UniProtKB/TrEMBL annotation:
<feature type="signal peptide">
    <location>
        <begin position="1"/>
        <end position="21"/>
    </location>
</feature>
<protein>
    <recommendedName>
        <fullName>SnoaL-like domain-containing protein</fullName>
    </recommendedName>
</protein>
<keyword id="KW-0732">Signal</keyword>
């Protein structure tokens, strides 16, 4: 019992020390906004509302072959999400905003600009409320559309999706050093309701045909979501802003 108590005391001491040397440690960032609603114009495909035919089963097998070909041709995310659709679970699939930003510099620049804008507003709120040393910020969902020129993999995987940034601005005990911490969140409905049509190896991908498998209960739409790693900007001032985005 004595050993257990000593371990607890040592743990508390280490946490206090960490909080003292890292002022932003333990600050919780706001969660992403509530899931957006599907656009009113999105078609509705009731799952398993018709009996599957032998042709439907052949189509599903063919799409698994398309997914393998896509992966071999350098489109791993598209392959993964197509296989997830064909797995027929309807469970959410994860997406990495950090991988997305690495592949799409224009998207990374948009995220950077939005986070800096929200941080500036939060910093101004801190100046008007001297009793506070921390204030959080959260954006609503913003839309971004990928193109084949940016990335064929993400164009096929997502097309159009939404993103948000959430974070905190904190002033240290001296009232001089300001630290910003933020992360980006991404959300999309994987419902294959677009008009993408292309040849991939020996297969042809016609997006408009995929919802038919949902109707016969051989595949299922799902949501895609994910949050990036926390980005830390130390010594922030509105005049200095955020470090420039490379690439």
């Amino acid at each position: 019992m004595h050993t257990f108590t000593m371990r607890i005391l040592l743990l508390l001491i280490s946490l206090i020390s960490l909080a003292a040397t890292h002022p932003t440690y333990g600050v919780t960032l706001p969660p992403p906004p509530l899931d957006p609603s599907k656009p009113a114009t999105s078609p509705y495909y009731p799952w398993r509302s018709r009996i599957a035919s032998s042709a439907n089963h052949v189509e599903k097998t063919t799409l698994y072959g398309l997914a393998r070909t896509a992966h071999a041709q350098g489109h791993p995310h598209f392959a993964t999400y197509l296989q997830h659709y064909l797995s027929n679970t309807g469970r959410d699939a994860s997406i990495s905003p950090d991988e997305l930003m690495a592949s799409l510099p224009a998207f990374r620049a948009e995220v950077h600009a939005l986070a800096e804008f929200k941080a500036r507003l939060a910093f101004q709120s801190l100046l008007m409320n001297p009793a506070l040393n921390t204030i959080s910020f959260s954006s609503f969902w913003h839309e971004y559309e990928t193109t084949p020129e940016q990335s064929w993999d993400w164009f096929l995987s997502l097309g159009r999706f939404v993103y948000s940034v959430t974070g905190v601005v904190r002033v240290d005990e001296t009232g001089e050093a300001v630290t910003v911490r933020y992360k980006v969140h991404v959300f999309d409905f994987c419902d294959w309701d677009g008009e993408r049509d292309l040849i991939m190896g020996q297969f042809r991908f016609r997006e408009g045909e995929l919802p038919g498998l949902q109707v016969v209960g051989l595949a299922r739409e799902f949501k895609m979501r994910g949050s990036g790693e926390v980005v830390v900007v130390e010594g922030y001032t509105p005049a200095k802003g955020f470090p420039k985005v490379n690439g």
